[in-house]
Amino acid sequence: MEEAGFFIRHLSNYDPLEKMRGKVFALAYKAGIIWGDSPADKKMNFIKLNDFLKERGAVKKDINRMVKPELIKTVNQFQQILKHNETSRSNKSIKNMLKSMKIETV
Questions:
Q1: Whole-model pTM?
Q2: N or C terminus: fewer CB in 10 A for the chain?
Q3: What residue spans define the domains of the chain?
């Protein structure tokens, strides 16, 4: 009975969307939108991320006000940002390699 009570209390404090919000933060770190991991950095990152989301986000809303479909759109947006960044890095690397080989690109 004690275990069941503990489990119920644990579940009542669990927000299933928190994992998705964490994923957005992780993707924002990878994209370079936010950085640092001191307590002060984390507070500033929360503000920076919300500013980014309100200005350029797919939903234009603070992360804590988003519901599941909105968080899905936001995660997809950040995954596309990372994909674009990787493609840009790859293209730049190829151009630099060709330039060092003295081959002209269009």
A1: 0.74
A2: C
A3: 17-100
